[in-house]
Write a structure and sequence with these properties.
97 residues, alpha/beta, three-stranded parallel β-sheet, globular
Length: 97
């Protein structure tokens, strides 16, 4: 069995200035708490600046090898539901139960 965590993220000074802090805490809980094989499917719903994720995740660290990251260019096309759906879709396509 492979567990898939569907995670959405947004950081911007106007909409969610604490987005990076919330994501950091969520990922810490997942990565420290899950004792099973898992994948983390993170969809960034148009954070500003676009590279906000780099303040939270160091993609050169092998700790994050199981993190699948997708950036949504326009969050207003599908909203938060679209981001969640994409994250779940990515988890299913990766073989998560």
């Amino acid at each position: 069995m492979k567990v898939g965590y569907a995670v959405t993220f947004h950081h911007s000074e106007d909409i969610r200035p604490n987005g990076k802090k919330v994501l950091r805490e969520n990922l810490k809980g997942i990565y420290e708490g899950c004792k099973y094989e898992f994948g983390c499917f993170l969809v960034d719903n148009q954070s500003v600046p676009k590279n906000s994720i780099e303040d939270v995740v160091d993609f050169t660290d092998e700790k994050w090898n199981n993190l699948n990251y997708t950036y949504v260019e326009n969050q207003f096309e599908k909203g938060i539901t679209g981001a969640w759906s994409l994250s779940v879709k990515n988890a299913i396509e990766a073989g998560c139960d």
